[in-house]
Amino acid sequence: xxxxxxxxxxxxxxxxxxxxxxxxxxxxxxxxxxxxxxxxxxxxxxxxxxxxxxxxxxxxxxxxxxxxxxxxxxxxxxxxxxxxxxxxxxxxxxxxxxxxxxxxxxxxxxxxxxxxxxxxxxxxxxxxxxxxxxxxxxxxxxxxxxxxxxxxxxxxxxxxxxxxxxxxxxxxxxxxxxxxxxxxxxxxxxxxxxxxxxxxxxxxxxxxxxxxxxxxxxxxxxxxxxxxxxxxxxxxxxxxxxxxxxxxxxxxxxxxxxxxxxxxxxxxxxxxxxxxxxxxxxxxxxxxxxxxxxxxxxxxxxxxxxxxxxxxxxxxxxxxxxxxxxxxxxxxxxxxxxxxxxxxxxxxxxxxxxxxxxxxxxxxxxxxxxxxxxxxxxxxxxxxxxxxxxxxxxxxxxxxxxxxxxxxxxxxxxxxxxxxxxxxxxxxxxxxxxxxxxxxxxxxxxxxxxxxxxxxxxxxxxxxxxxxxxxxxxxxxxxxxxxxxxxxxxxxxxxxxxxxxxxxxxxxxxxxxxxxxxxxxxxxxxxxxxxxxxxxxxxxxxxxxxxxxxxxxxxxxxxxxxxxxxxxxxxxxxxxxxxxxxxxxxxxxxxxxxxxxxxxxxxxxxxxxxxxxxxxxxxxxxxxxxxxxxxxxxxxxxxxxxxxxxxxxxxxxxxxxxxxxxxxxxxxxxxxxxxxxxxxxxxxxxxxxxxxxxxxxxxxxxxxxxxxxxxxxxxxxxxxxxxxxxxxxxxxxxxxxxxxxxxxxxxxxxxxxxxxxxxxxxxxxxxxxxxxxxxxxxxxxxxxxxxxxxxxxxxxxxx
Amino acid sequence: xxxxxxxxxxxxxxxxxxxxxxxxxxxxxxxxxxxxxxxxxxxxxxxxxxxxxxxxxxxxxxxxxxxxxxxxxxxxxxxxxxxxxxxxxxxxxxxxxxxxxxxxxxxxxxxxxxxxxxxxxxxxxxxxxxxxxxxxxxxxxxxxxxxxxxxxxxxxxxxxxxxx
Lengths: 799, 164
Hints:
The structure holds two protein chains of two kinds.
Chain A: E1 6-11, E2 14-19, H1 24-30, E3 54-57, E4 64-65, E5 75-78, H2 82-97, H3 113-121, H4 137-140, E6 148-150, H5 160-169, E7 174-177, E8 184-187, H6 200-204, E9 210-212, E10 225-230, E11 239-244, E12 250-254, H7 268-272, E13 285-290, E14 293-298, H8 303-315, E15 320-324, H9 330-343, E16 349-351, H10 358-365, H11 372-377, E17 380-384, H12 388-391, H13 393-404, E18 409-414, E19 426-429, H14 435-447, H15 455-466, E20 470-474, H16 476-479, H17 483-495, E21 499-503, H18 510-517, H19 538-547, E22 552-556, H20 560-563, H21 567-575, E23 579-584, H22 589-593, E24 596-599, E25 607-611, E26 617-621, H23 632-642, H24 650-675, E27 695-701, H25 710-713, H26 715-718, E28 724-728, H27 729-734, E29 742-747, E30 750-759, E31 766-770, E32 789-795
Parallel strand pairs in A: 1-5, 15-16, 15-22, 17-18, 17-20, 18-19, 20-21, 22-23, 23-24, 27-31, 28-30
Antiparallel strand pairs in A: 1-2, 3-4, 3-5, 6-9, 7-8, 10-11, 11-12, 13-14, 13-24, 25-26, 27-32, 28-31, 29-30, 29-32
Chain B: H1 9-20, H2 29-40, H3 45-55, H4 59-68, E1 80-85, H5 88-92, H6 95-106, E2 119-124, E3 136-138, E4 141-143, H7 148-163
Parallel strand pairs in B: 1-2
Antiparallel strand pairs in B: 1-3, 3-4
């Protein structure tokens, strides 16, 4: 970066230096001079519409907008000269001419950029005697989303929201309609918005036009305290600010506003699911069952019952299975793995989220996967069966920015056209479970073209050949295809110069938890005396319980019942156990079955570090007031020392965890160097399964506002729940199923009744059903992450 | 979401032809909207949706452009759209008086259509001909240096023309 030319300039008498191309507003910010802005935003392209950032430049005849003017050599800038102040005063006066004086009832009051600028530059008195613009109720207050509040009368037409919608969210949902004083922000025909990155328009709005509707009229912002945290609801693991009121209750979640690339926006899940852990279903008190009597205890008193339970588990070494899910911090996973192997002396450590290719991906790509910077600087992005907007919206955010702001070329591949396909240059239909075949044929085509390939496929081949910096992103379905896919994609990456790979797993801290706790078959970093012959997937544990070889189960994580495939079978199996110990943040049938249920902190209350899918190390301090009891790591540490281990501080666990991660990274790097010459990509092609003559591939995933049962637990996101089967229009026509018709979906011996929505965005022969729209009983046939099921659609007769 | 077509085969073909003329599909938006208005008289939401689908652009983009320009109508309009400029220069030279004169004469308010479906009266902002103010635009024709008398003659000639 050192070769970027710098220029010298003077701002308000302070001499400074900035790289060529930096805008004046940014150069001033770096030396602590604040230039007011409305339309300008650090993550949006410059516009120069509002004029509030006017500054005076020596020798320039007119004032210029600091948000669109790049720095120049020898520039002398005045940001507070009399001319500037007078101009700003005029602009503020015009903005206020039509702005209502409703600050006392406006939720933005206290953090309103317009309010701040008016206090600084306003005249204090208005000279306007005319009637203010007033949209009638239909337009002034429009309901465009269940979670956003919309008051067009307050709008100052900076267009931050509409640009966020285009450049960041990528939806093109909202726009400015009409002109002049009738201009207003709305959607097409007031259609309801269902963006995965919902709420970012409200976050950037400098006035109270768009505000977070879930906190409307509930509190004043100066009564709220921001607590830095990390969201564990998907593998983007974004940093958040969790705001608590005077009583310590969480009232809202926003993105942290610092100058890092990842940190100005949040997705709908991260922003609106905070109420999920405040409801009835939160596990607040522990329960212990001793001789058929259930006792309850406070979380703060959970140490003694836990110690007793673990003593019972440790008695019969090797008969305990430890199951964890990915909503735990690295420290927690590390301690879980250590306690399992040293205290409980069991090889059965099992992650609930089962991606077949995950360990192979970690062995090869730890620490060298694509980062957010790589995505933003890429000139070609290839999405291989990666419904980013649905699975990890914030990684989708980087792709949208790369395409819409930096002009990267985007191609999508897979059985579904996703939100990003509409921004892309072409979409190549590829059957579910056959991503490896696509990668292998792409490698072949790079050497010699095939004549029978589709036009879209050839476009992708051309793009890959011409790319200077490529990023390949694959979702959880390809990851579930197993190690063969990872080898294929590694081989592709090695053949294209300057290419990076990113795989996006389901879950939360999926990568970190797997690296720290490992599984029954994979214990790297733990030394050679640890058995590597344990169960490593949940099906094995279920079988072992049914056979009687596993007598105790310890489940650790959050929302655990959601991850247990085929719940009725698990329920019967659990009845056979001697001990079932559950650490969960939520009440469920599972916690009621447990011999010991310990309440733990939730997805934003937890303490510890998280490894995001983009390889970033995020730290949650666990400092939210009102969080349930102590953090799980501290409880586990105390437990370990009570059970005869050495006492250890949380800080030293943190450093051990970091060391273990570094060890994994260097191991992955060495593995690459070893294999540089060997091309290990398997040439055997998989067919990707066969749905049968009458069957369809049923793609199962997490709809929009999903994360486990969050949609059902939180009131905000539950409003968006859409239970319908997405079906290819042509298929539906052939089967004479109309849009909105009800059908029976037969999966194995189970039947589910759903409404059909026909679409052209799904491949013929495939259907999509949102898993989180189903009840636990209906969900039992769900066959593991990323695996397409086969199903038969039976037309429901009477609609 | 796919809506049923509200356009004729010819109109669809014309819009696709316009789309092919530009390297960026969105460039064909205004000509396409003109073409739709020519055939349908005004722009309905369903028409705008179909334009969006044909051009492959988000519906809101069509709505933004369609509502920005006063030359596009969103309600049924009369055979003659009388647009009176009430911007600064025209107003100083009597534009607003012309508008109220027409309101009285036609018995309708700004934005309304006469019951015989002949005239729609619209007060508009600058028509870009200040040097000939006050200006009135009737359909695609400009009438400059308009007086009340000149307007009356114009209206009656249009009326008789409509009868023919």
